[in-house]
Amino acid sequence: MPEQQQWTIAATEQPPEWFIEAVKQHTPASSGIYAAQLLWQRGIKDDQQLTAFINHKTYKPASPFEFGQEMHLAIARLQQADNAREKIAIWGDFDADGITATSVLWDGLGQFFKQNTQLSYYIPNRLKESHGLNNQGIDNLAKQGCKLIVTCDTGSTNIEEIIYAKQLGIDVIVTDHHTLPTERPPVAAIINPRYLPKEHQLFHLSGVAVAYKLVEALYQSLPNVAKHPLEDLLDLVAVGLIADLVQLSGDCRYLAQLGIQRLQADFQQPAAARRRPGVGRLLELCQKSGDRPTDISFGLGPRINAVSRIQGDASFCVELLTSRDAKRCNELAEVTELANARRKSLQKDVQAQVAQKLTQLDLSTTSVIVLEDAQWPAGVLGLVAGQVAQETGRPTILLSTEGAGEAGGDEEGISPSSSLSPPLARGSARSVNSVDLYQLVKDQAHLLHRFGGHPFAAGLSLLVENIPLFTAAINQQLRQSLGSTTLTPTVQADLTLTVANLGKELFLELKLLEPCGMGNPIPKLLIQNCWFENSWHRNQQDWQGKKVQYIKTEFDIRDDSSKSVFPGIWWGHYKDELPIGRCDCIAELDYNSFKKRYEIRLIGVRPNVNSTLTTQNGLNNSYPLTPLILDLRNQEHSARAKQQLSANSTQHSALMIEDCPTNWDDLRAWLRRCLTISRSTSGLDNQQQLAIAWSKPNPQPPNQIWLTLVGIAKYLSRTNQLVTRVQLLEKIGISDQTLLVGIKALKDLGFTVKRQDRYLQITWHPSDNAENFADAAVARFLAAVREEQFQRQYFAQVPLSTIVALASYNNET
């Protein structure tokens, strides 16, 4: 099981007053103290650094020719291709960095070479080919008369494939940012920032940024050829940079800053006037506006990545990002959105299965988690591995043993010299903390078929029979390198704040640090001695209204610093996971452009160990109290129940639940309310009581309830009367959630239901085939009614001890 997170607070050093004043000049609406603390912590300690960091206009980007001779060789080979009218193929990759890199070269080189006749592109199939060059694809390009391949986000270590291409008369220009080969490959040019010193401002470029630098060099070498400005490519560069989680420093930060501005500016145009209608439609589907880095990291990036994870072939994503045909782009964007919805559902299924397997592991003796399953789809293993690594604090490798055959991993693949035979397991690895995962995997190359990647992520394939050996060896290796160091899941908070600090002023101040990424993470805020109210969760829906198995919880957070609450969201969690009592949490502050509100995004939460409250026995304990619960269910007369309630009450009335709940969430909400009132009082005599006083249900047959709902709807349509939701619930005797299912069934039957303030207006437009069309929806409603009735019967009889145990458990955990 996942271990308790270790929370740490970043070392704080009060910045000098002159620095705080310098920061305040960039955020005049606030004190600037929080941004100053963060910038000082992160090594921005002089005025020149500060100005260049915040204002991209003062930053001086590096020339593309800082890559030296290799860039000159690449430009010369491209000019040779132009002079000889040779066919050129862009060989990309299927993740967001690779797709945007391919798109940048497609649009950028397309200014100098005619698209589709002289210039083409090739994206490998994730599920069939994996990353990197392969001989079959090279053969296909050779048959088409290709004489030059320009890679992007891939190719540095494909020595054998580059030699094979050369034998077929095809030269290769590599643009990449992955691991370098031991020797320079036989290429026309290789442009890879890893050849540069680590402190160089180009060192951290991702694949899309390297591709951009190649196009920039071509623009400078042939200044009078291109018809569109180079800056038109910057929005794509920002998407790839932020989605690939590279360190946003130097030119990376500069390009991301410019790109986000262009992304936002294009989205603000009318849909018909956008340069990139596909990007605009994707932003609409994910309810983003393009002005926030998180719009990419949580919106565009996952959607582009989802296509290859689900379908394998992501070639159409280049068309989605570069086409000016709005109708075609809308179609492709919806296919992408559907792939992302399926990815979410698939990912949640695998997460549940992995969680089950984790219960069988002893994490105290496990340094590297290695799990396998024959049913796991390879496309989502990297995502799940990343989540497991974060939760457990251990490098995690997930392998799929489904089928047999050649397969790479989830990152750039390279081949050891030995040739192995199927059946092969293939999978993905993700790291944590300072563990160099690539080196860890590379040291076991003798057990692998293919592997590749970088320190934080890797892909690999190996013989199924080698998995036990590999697991033992890689665990032993990491244990030896760690020595006495213990691996634990760790979250570091940057600032300690209160709920009163949250809001627009703080958001605009922290926005000075954007865009955030590796080396400059989103500020994490520690809020202590707080509690949650009005929490609810739901399954996320796709743009067609279909449910997918992905949960998010929304809530209000409160503490003693303010009488006001502040909204928040917790992705991938149920509201039951929120503590009922006082707690501490770590969160990120964000702006929701869809809801037009500032909100926190919860990262971690745990009970507050310092809150001291009075329990039922009058003793002080370091956890919240359990409410006094009176069981008045199924009393013969309500008057007798109220009399007993009055006799048992003390200085104030007990809270009484008269409606039988249909799930534990309903009951937990009352428990939270009871505890909130108790928190505001002191002493046993003032402790809030909770009375459960519902009667044993006497349900109608589900079919009769449906007929009643239809009859009421017809009456309201005929009389043109309005009705509130509460009135419908009371008349029909069902829950709000079940009523929602019933309204959907009414719509399929030909009814129109519109909201007018607090009222519903129902009209009917009958058609001959409406009843047949609504059969499935009616069946869902009847099933919902039956489930609700079953739950009411349960809560009519559930022992009081079970309810008390629930209250105690939720206040201690």
**Helical percentage:** 40-55%
Largest beta-sheet characterization: 5 strands, parallel
Number of helices: 26
Global structural class: alpha/beta
Strand content: 15-25%
Alpha-carbon distance between the termini? Answer: 15 Å
Strand order of the largest sheet: 3-2-4-5-6
- Rg estimate, integer Å: 30 Å
Mean residue pLDDT: 84
- Stretches with pLDDT under 50, minimum 5 residues: 404-420, 611-626, 637-641, 647-652, 808-813
What is the fold's blueprint, element by element?
Elements: E1 6-9, H1 17-24, H2 33-41, H3 47-54, H4 69-84, E2 87-91, H5 96-109, E3 119-122, H6 135-143, E4 146-151, H7 159-167, E5 171-175, E6 189-191, H8 207-221, H9 234-243, H10 251-267, H11 277-285, H12 293-311, H13 316-322, H14 326-358, E7 369-373, H15 381-392, E8 396-400, E9 424-430, H16 437-442, E10 450-454, E11 457-463, H17 467-482, E12 490-493, E13 495-497, H18 504-510, E14 525-541, E15 547-558, E16 566-571, E17 583-592, E18 597-607, E19 613-614, E20 620-621, E21 628-631, H19 638-648, E22 655-657, H20 664-679, E23 689-692, H21 702-719, E24 722-724, H22 725-732, H23 736-748, E25 751-756, E26 759-764, H24 770-773, H25 775-797, H26 800-812
Parallel strand pairs: 1-12, 2-3, 2-4, 4-5, 5-6, 7-8, 13-14, 16-18, 21-23, 22-23
Antiparallel strand pairs: 8-9, 9-11, 10-11, 14-15, 14-17, 15-16, 17-18, 19-20, 24-26, 25-26
Helix pairs in contact: 1-2, 5-8, 5-9, 5-13, 8-9, 9-10, 9-12, 11-14, 12-14, 13-14, 14-15, 21-25, 23-25
